[in-house]
Amino acid sequence: MPNLPKNWPLKAPAFRPGDESGPKLCYNGSMKRTNVIRVLPDKRQKRVLEIIGDRCAALWNVVQFRCRQAFLKGEPVPSYEALCSEFKEHPAYKALPAHIGQEVIKKARRAWDAFFACLRLYRKGKLAQCPSLPRYWKDRKTGKRFFRVIPVKAPTSYSLTAKILSLTLPRDLRNGSGDRLLLHTKGLLKFHGQPKTLELKYDPVKRRWYAHQVVEVPDPVAKARPPKCAGLDLGARTFGALAVEGLDYQLLFSGRELWKDFLYWTKMISREQARLNRTGRKTSRKLKLLYRKRSKRLKHAFEALAKQIARILKKNGVGTLFIENLTDIRADMDFGPQNLLVHNFWTFRMLRKAIEDACVKENIVVVPVEPQGTSSTCAVCGGLINRLVRNKAYCPNCGLVWHADANAALNILLKGSSKGHGAEATPQRPLVLRWNRHRWESRLKSAVGTPLRAANSVPEAA
Known about the structure:
By secondary structure, the protein is an alpha+beta fold. Strand 9 (about 240-245) and strand 10 form a beta hairpin. The chain has two domains: about 30-220, no CATH class; about 230-455, no CATH class. It contains nine helices and 17 strands. The chain has helices at about 45-70, 80-85, 90-95, 100-125, 255-280, 285-315, 340-345, 350-360, 405-415, and strands spanning about 30-40, 150, 160, 165-170, 180-185, 195-205, 210-220, 230-235, 240-245, 250-255, 320-325, 365-370, 385-390, 390-395, 400-405, 430-435, 440. The strands form three sheets. The chain has a seven-stranded antiparallel beta sheet. The radius of gyration is 27 Å and the shape is elongated. Helix 1 (about 45-70) crosses helix 4 (about 100-125), helix 5 runs antiparallel to helix 6 (about 285-315) and helix 6 (about 285-315) crosses helix 8.
């Protein structure tokens, strides 16, 4: 998109009390969570959902056309209240239940709020590319509408359990059985509280329907945090090196098996891309499924690792976790733009987010620590170390040879807790955990396959 004219507006009209298009914040000591369950409609119900979704797309497109024309002419973009009053008698609005039509207009207006926020950042030089205008729900090649979501405004318009989802139907789609559409669901409602909005989404890759319900749950009661600390070093081959205050050894989470799994699915993706090139195509449903499966398997391992770390910290009475801050770490690396390990496999932001979420549930505070010097100094004496091989560190002053990632984790712990070198450094042989496609377990096993020192049985600190 070219640079925007200077006379175009930079922001939307200010929000007023009662304006439902504004951001909703919880000031009553609560937070919002999302329940995601699968919807199992039959053939007739699928057709009904497709009709409702197409009507939502039609209303979205006319609202976006109205807002885009106002913006391109240099006029203020209408607010949510103005759009509701303007489209109240529109055929696209009247074809939907009122609560669904209002939610479609609200989502369209919020898209413009996000555009104005990005535009302000671009004018200040904080964004490299100019943001594009909110788009239509329409395929440019075929000219057909497609729907992304069916939003439902309030819990008075739906009811959701672990087995049944009930929705209000438009007038022309109601039959003799009533004005409600009963859909079978499959899944588990993880969060319970005050229900809010609900969105029905269709996944075109899996060809499945999913219901996303927003629930407002109260904040957990804050308890006094234990005084112990821990340090976590993040890496590409060793995902995490954990040093816990009071433990006489460190924990290493090896990414070797997960790296092999990532390479396998990357090879499958390359085969599918080669097949598509021979037929003159760019993408296919199978290719999208392969990309989805590769990312899902990696995310599953990261979430399991985060839960394992939070479980270990809680068992050992840790209240603060010092984690390595890797912001802009790739800017200092010179491995080339085509390096698969660094640029594709090592998604450290996803891992850090999973660890932070798991620690919040256990009332553990996560504090970022600058990693400068943590891998080049000895945790015992503070002198410079030599890297004999990739994972071995040798200190000429102490004469110690131990794992480089364990040394970095101890340095992060000492740096975050402001303790001197040698105060908590115990250069013991670390416990290595590997991914077995289901859980993280110790690689030290007996002849019968029982872990000698499993991660779930980490001894508590003395």
